[in-house]
Design a protein that fits this description.
The protein is built from eight helices and five strands. By secondary structure, it is α/β, with parallel strands linked by helices. It has a single domain, classed as Rossmann fold, CATH 3.40.50. It has a five-stranded parallel beta sheet, with helices on both faces. The radius of gyration is 16 Å and the shape is globular.
Length: 215
């Protein structure tokens, strides 16, 4: 019998190691006979990548909080319609580097927008599609910010708009992820993202495998 296709989202503060973990999880799923693809938000489609370039670069005052939320949601509509749902329909699992949990954390807890409004917009615009499993990579934001800023500088990538915000902003984001996990433990696992990349990879894969055995 074919393995069921699942929708996974990897979430966490900036610099927690999401990009490496999403790649490692996709490799693990494919290596163990479960078809999977990697995608990201904002992005995943040509439209989403254009929005990504707009929203992650420049100064923080480039966008009003409402505009930021609507742009993120517009990218997600295309992402779900063009990538996520078609893959799941063919029995292919999807691993996304960020999803709506990031919107609840960044635009909700971070920017102060009402979580109920964000969830309502998600229901209406995106069709209320939620991941089967959200992997929250939990890390002290002070450590994550140092990592993220260093990576962006080294690669000369202009995607550091959120990294310019103060530590309190990123602490609210971390707490939001933990609150989301506590509110829906059946579809969240929290993984300690401190330590070496190999340690975090092993913790993540072990957590996913344990969740799959119980699903």
């Amino acid at each position: 019998m074919d393995e069921p296709a699942f929708f996974y989202a990897v979430e966490g503060v900036d610099g927690c190691g999401k990009t490496g973990i999403t790649r490692a999880l996709v490799d693990h799923l494919n290596d163990t006979g479960r078809r999977a693809i990697l995608t990201r938000e904002p992005g995943g489609t040509p439209q989403g990548e254009q929005i990504r370039a707009l929203i992650l670069s420049g100064s923080d005052d480039a966008w009003d909080a409402n505009s930021e939320l609507l742009l993120m949601t517009a990218a997600r509509v295309e992402h779900v319609r063009r990538v996520i749902l078609p893959a799941l329909a063919t029995g292919t699992s999807v691993v996304s580097d960020r999803y709506v949990g990031s919107t609840i954390a960044y635009q909700g807890a971070g920017r102060g927008m009402a979580e109920d409004f964000i969830r309502q917009l998600h229901r209406v615009a995106v069709g209320d599609l939620w991941p089967d499993l959200v992997i929250v990579l939990d890390l002290d934001p002070l450590i994550g910010l140092a990592r993220s800023k260093g990576r962006l500088r080294a690669a000369a990538i202009d995607e550091g708009r959120f990294e310019t915000l103060d530590l309190a902003f990123h602490q609210r984001i971390r707490q939001s992820y933990l609150d989301q996990a506590a509110a829906a433990p059946q579809r969240h696992v929290v993984v300690d993202a401190s330590g070496t990349p190999d340690m975090v990879r092993r913790r993540t894969i072990d957590a996913v495998e344990a969740w799959q055995r119980g699903s």
